[in-house]
Write a structure and sequence with these properties.
Chain lengths: ~120, ~110
């Protein structure tokens, strides 16, 4: 697979439970981004990784949200003690950071529903 | 701070009409990159075009064309002879030179009616 993949595609969880969302970027893409998109809304930036480092965590909505990236590859977004307002589609994107091709390629998203 | 404005929230046109989607951006960087993405009803964002700040040439790709004007900080997108399959939400985005700031506009929902 050449594209960005995300798992699970759908997640239904009860309020208060923790969830982990996974993103597999395109091989060789050093930059990785997480966004949240509520129904009918635009993209809300959450966090950016350059390699395994996250220089910008300002978009994370609260301390219940955390993310990590290992091996300059897979990234996991964790939401602890989920709330109903966390319901949204979580999108992951990756891009190059050299060579001029800086466009982001998006995964299909994980639709999270908190009941 | 970087900012992207797409003033048109929703546009409806009849098939075969031309339509222009506006994008205005703000940045203090001298080197930056602009993008357009399409999000069809299926939900997956599709990359359409990238434009570097030092390249103001307009671009045409089939029925799509883009007009980049640094003087007005605009990067507008025109669809000629629109088709129903063009119905989607279109996002304009701005990236700084280092990749840390990748800002999306709020999107314009385009409905092309048969």
């Amino acid at each position: 697979g050449a594209g960005v993949s995300q798992s699970p595609s759908n997640k239904v969880t009860e309020k208060g439970k923790d969830v982990e969302l996974r993103c597999d970027p395109i091989s060789g893409h050093t930059a990785l981004y997480w966004y949240r998109q509520r129904l009918g809304q635009g993209l809300e930036f959450l966090i950016y990784f350059q390699g395994n480092s996250a220089p910008d965590k300002s978009g994370l909505p609260s301390d219940r949200f955390s993310a990590e990236r290992t091996g300059e590859s897979v990234s996991t977004l964790t939401i602890q003690r989920t709330q109903q307002e966390d319901s949204a589609v979580y999108l992951c994107a990756s891009s190059m950071t050299s060579g001029g091709s800086y466009e982001q390629y998006f995964g299909p998203g994980t639709r999270l529903t908190v009941t | 701070a970087q900012k992207v404005t797409q003033a048109q929230t929703e546009i409806s046109v009849v098939e075969k009409e031309d339509v222009t989607l506006d994008c205005v951006y703000e940045t203090r960087d001298t080197t930056y990159y602009l993008f357009w993405y399409k999000q069809p009803p299926s939900g997956e964002l599709v990359f359409l075009i990238r434009r570097n700040s030092f390249d103001e040439q307009n671009e045409i790709s089939g029925r799509y064309s883009w007009n980049f004007q640094k003087s007005t900080s605009s990067f507008n997108f025109t669809i000629t002879a629109s088709q129903v399959v063009d119905s989607a939400v279109y996002f304009c985005a701005l990236r700084d030179n280092y990749g840390q700031n990748f800002v999306f506009g709020p999107g314009t929902r385009l409905s092309v009616l048969p």
